[in-house]
Recover the amino acids of this structure.
């Protein structure tokens, strides 16, 4: 745990500094968490909702943080869970086939006003969306966020070996999809 | 090898997610989240109604239960109600009478304690009118005794 995280956590223990500590936490982590969530739910409006839910949950449960893992890991875990729960809720509300949130995400990709990529980027995102959930999470965290397997392992509570295998499969599937659809 | 069949590699893509956000989004988001947190932390003012709510709820439920019993009984079993209330009225008449009886007994006890039997008989026989009685009381008793005797509080 770095000094800044220690300062934030110490602030949360002092009732007078709690809100200041929370603003420090937002300054340090909000962008990274937002982009992590955005890559899972794709649409900006959805990412905005999930981000707010995540930060409110962090505010409410920071007292239970036991520092067994790093603050960064803990925040990423909450954000991941919130994003996946959001997708499950959307699945329940829509008439999508059971267990399939690919259609919802592809629609979001097509309609999102804040997509800035070209055609290749769009195809790549489509390939990522079509991956199984775990492979998609691992691919995003490794390829875009450049996290170490050890960090991903702590966030997703999965062994490093399994994560390496998931990433390898994900890359193969993406390259195959791109080869066929470019 | 044609362009179509060339093996596509992740190296060909940018390792930056092709998404963007509205201008000043992160600044606004921080303010929005902080405002929400401050609102959650602000102590909520609780009025007297809030404190009386459980008691009022209890009273309301008693009234509802009472009405649920009383209204059907009044509609379908008026004789039972009449019988019950008749009894109650008799009981209250008895209670009122008994209060008077006990008040009289208190007064009698007082006279027995203060005066001998002869004095009481003599006094009651001599009372030919109210004026005589008043004169006697003024002569024999002080103001406090008179007030005590006339006050109904002594009998309760």
């Amino acid at each position: 745990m770095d000094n800044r995280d220690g300062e934030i956590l110490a602030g949360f223990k002092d009732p007078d500094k709690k809100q200041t500590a929370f603003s420090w936490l937002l300054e340090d982590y909000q962008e990274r968490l937002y982009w992590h969530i955005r890559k899972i739910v794709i649409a900006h409006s959805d990412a905005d909702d999930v981000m707010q839910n995540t930060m409110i949950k962090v505010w409410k449960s920071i007292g239970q943080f036991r520092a067994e893992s790093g603050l960064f890991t803990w925040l990423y875990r909450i954000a991941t869970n919130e994003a996946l729960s959001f997708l499950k809720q959307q699945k329940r509300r829509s008439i999508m086939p059971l267990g399939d949130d690919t259609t919802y995400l592809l629609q979001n990709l097509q309609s999102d006003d804040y997509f800035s990529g070209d055609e290749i980027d769009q195809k790549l995102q489509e390939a990522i969306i079509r991956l199984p959930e775990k492979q998609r999470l691992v691919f995003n965290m490794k390829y875009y966020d450049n996290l170490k397997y050890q960090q991903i392992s702590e966030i997703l509570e999965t062994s490093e070996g399994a994560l390496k295998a998931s990433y390898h499969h994900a890359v193969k599937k993406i390259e195959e999809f791109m080869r066929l659809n470019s | 090898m044609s362009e179509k069949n060339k093996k596509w590699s992740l190296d060909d893509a940018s390792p930056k997610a092709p998404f963007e956000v509205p201008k000043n989004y992160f600044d606004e988001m921080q303010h929005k989240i902080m405002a929400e947190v401050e609102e959650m932390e602000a102590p909520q003012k609780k009025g007297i109604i809030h404190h009386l709510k459980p008691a009022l709820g209890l009273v309301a439920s008693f009234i509802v239960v009472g009405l649920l019993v009383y209204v059907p009984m009044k509609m379908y079993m008026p004789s039972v109600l009449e019988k019950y209330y008749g009894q109650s009225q008799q009981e209250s008449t008895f209670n009122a009478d008994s209060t008077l009886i006990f008040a009289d007994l208190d007064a009698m006890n007082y006279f027995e304690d203060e005066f001998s039997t002869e004095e009481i008989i003599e006094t009651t026989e001599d009372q030919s009118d109210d004026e005589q009685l008043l004169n006697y009381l003024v002569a024999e008793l002080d103001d406090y005794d008179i007030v005590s005797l006339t006050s109904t509080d002594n009998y309760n």
Notes: The two ends of chain A are 44 Å apart (CA to CA). The interface with chain B takes residues 19, 22-23, 26-27, 30-31, 34-35, 38-39, 44, 48, 51-52, 55-56, 59, 112, 114-118, 120-122, 124-125, 140, 143-144, 146, 171, 174-175, 178-179, 182 of chain A (CB under 8 Å). The mean pLDDT of chain A is 92. The CA atoms of residues 11 and 17 of chain A lie 5 Å apart.
